[in-house]
Amino acid sequence: MIENLKFTTDKFIETRKKIGLIVLASDYTIDHEFRAIFPVNGTDYFHARIENSPIITPESLSDMGSKISTTLKLILPGDRLDVVAYACTSATVVLGEQAITKSIRAVHPEAYCTTPITAAFEAFDSFRAKNIAVLTPYVKEVNSHITNYIEGKGYNISSFGSFNEISDPVVASIDSQSIISGVKKIIANKTVDMVFISCTSIRFMEFIPELERSIGIPVTTSNHAMAWHCMRLAGIQEKMPDFGQLYTF
To answer: Has this prediction a pTM greater than 0.85?
Structure first.
């Protein structure tokens, strides 16, 4: 056996911005949608899955609070993360953005932090949008948290619609035409500045430009907004208009 062979290293890993992504164990969608964007221009993401129930209720969402830090420790242990994203919209509004940030900063005190709802607010502000149409897959009890949280941040929900589905695997299977039809139904005859399609399990990012052309106003989803916000927090300012109007900011 020949040991201690000589080798050299390149700067590929050291020079790339690293995004840590905490993904629900029940999520079928976000990895597919993030891979449509990353790696891009010197940045990439690395994920770990957090234990959760596929049945989405305020109680099951709240249960994840104590697991965020321990899950984050599984992502590139010992290395620095530039951005950490917690990939659950509904759990964020149940737990609160401050609680999520506190759990992340306990492991990576210098990392920028985001969540789907944090990113959605940044998206709304980019368009100076105040009247928001919201489409969700959630049951009534979760929808109440979503409504109260968004309105509590000073936005007006001018229209709200829901598929009222409790199972994450079923949500991941909702097809694009159902989502497009749902959006068009809830915005009809309403004053709407922007559409927000909530839930990281919703698979719709590739259809956003089509829907924007059809309805004439900006559209974003949980994954769409959060991927954009991760890029911007990492200092990546690349414009990607093929992904919709938000990616021109």
So the answer is: yes
Query: Token pair of 132, please?
Result: 């928001």
User: Do 162 and 136 form a contact (C-beta atoms < 8 A)?
Assistant: yes
Helix (H, G, I), strand (E, B) or coil at 11: coil
Domain extent listing, the chain: 12-116+226-242, 118-221
What would the two tokens of residue 97 be?
A: 């953005």
Structural class in CATH, domain 12-116+226-242 = alpha beta
The whole-angstrom separation of Cα 71 and Cα 45 is 15
> Edge to edge, what strands does the sheet with 194-197 contain?
156-162, 131-136, 194-197, 219-221
Q: Is the dihedral of CA 92, 45, 223, 117 positive or negative?
A: positive
Rounded to an integer, what distance in angstroms lies between the CA atom of residue 162 and that of residue 65?
A: 25
206-235 per-position pLDDT tens digit: 999 999 999 999 999 999 999 999 999 999
Which helix (H) or strand (E) element contains residue 47? strand 43-50
Architecture of domain 118-221: 3-Layer(aba) Sandwich (3.40)
CB–CB of 27/168 below 8 Å?
A: yes
Nearest to 16 by CA among 238, 225, 236: 236
Name the one residue in this structure whose structure tokens are 């980019």: 126
